[in-house]
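[09:14] KT: can someone run the structure on this one? pasting the chain below
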Amino acid sequence: MSSSPTLPPQASPPEFAVTATRPHALAGVDVIALPVLQGDDAAAPVLGPGADELEELLGVDLLAVLEGDRATGKVGELTVLPTPLGAPDNADLRQVLLVGLGSAGADDFRRAGATLAKAVLDRDAVATTITAVDPEVGLQQFVVGMSLGAFSFVLKKEPAGPAPAARVVLGGMADGDRAALERAVAIAGASWRARTLAWVPSNLKSPAWLAEQATALGSEAGLDVTVWDEQKLAREGFGGVLAVGRASPTPPRLIRLDYRPSRRSRRTKPVVLVGKGITFDTGGLSIKPGEAMVNMKRDMTGGAVVMSVMAALAAVGCPVPVVGLVPAAENSIGGDAMRPGDVVRHYGGRTTEVTNTDAEGRLVLADAMAWAVAHLDPAVVVDVATLTGAIKVALGQQVGGVFANDDALADALLTSGTATGEPLWRFPLASVYEDRLSSRVADADNAGSGPGAIIAALFLQHFAGDVPWAHLDLASTGDAPADSYELAKGPTGFGARLLLDWLGSPEPLAGVRAS
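[09:31] RB: done, structure tokens below
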């Protein structure tokens, strides 16, 4: 029996299908959406595949419709042609939408998908040829935009607002595109799942609840799942996780998920993903200002990303074994709260003097990383966390930070970030700041002065040992300040797409030095 509250049912992304048939010949669709490309310089916009057939069917000059709306084809433009009486052979058709696709770059497809998603809420079936313009560039990006552009999360008494379109048919495609569609749906779904988990309020989302979600997810995706409760964490010496979570009435957990590819050598070392799972962060006794605490339900975004990525690895054909670790705790306030001046002993024996209880994420990540290095013999460790406000000061809210001790690993993550619309910027592991971690009583200070994001990365580097390691600090991108294309204001789930792009590549460890 579940010991935690049950989350009410939420909206789901649309279902997608591909067909060689163009939209004009599909019965039962209530919206047809055609792409409009931006013309060169001052040239008129260009209608994409399917326009000629639809013009003949409806007896409408679509370029004249665009001209009347002064449309240019830039991304985000939407021209609506009502068809209240339907069309020959399709009495259900109610709208033709002409969707700006700009120059048909990767970002353009994703943004066009998100624009369309918002325009077709509550529709039963939408047919489009947007992806047929360039399936190799546009299929995954469009599916991501079309899925996430309609994202919602609500816990209201009354029925929720409009839902995503139930079904989207990608017309003018080939049978060979079906595998790419399945991969795109898996990647979009992982991002949706990570975002949903981050949106769940913390009165529902305890560490135990997060572990229950991981167990259910593992059953769904064929993953082995192991959970450490507070007694096992204490027996095995996870001092960082225990210290952070000890003031909360909901005890901490460590969650492990295992993915094994169908074909692998027994000698293949695993990739280890470690996701920060702070289900709420008050800052502890070094308490946050009220306005800085409002969005702290999403401080487990790293853990949500790791869980969601693990569930989608088989669908993207990840060729290497992967272990996901989520150290989960609530950083609360109480008589037993971790104090400034306390010394924490991490897994493996390294100690940390706590000078700021609001620098708690690195304490739980350190335990999980140390355990992984000691027990899993990893090829690579990547930790994922909404870790420092400093990264947000440096990068704003649209780019994440990456630190790495291996250039090939850093390059792979940067490339995947650019490819998926989850861009990263590399920061240095600047050893000149190492002395800022020094403590008179422990191996390190958890909140040394200096450039905050770099100090945090240097702190974590000690727990990676000699293993190739990357640290994704996503506090900059963990929340969107406003609705924008595929982003909804609030927690974003940023990171799932880029990790799946990397791990789903033919050789994710190519060029990475052997550990």
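[09:33] KT: thanks! Residues 15-172 form a domain with the Leucine Aminopeptidase, subunit E; domain 1 fold (CATH 3.40.220.10).
[09:34] RB: yep, looked fine to me
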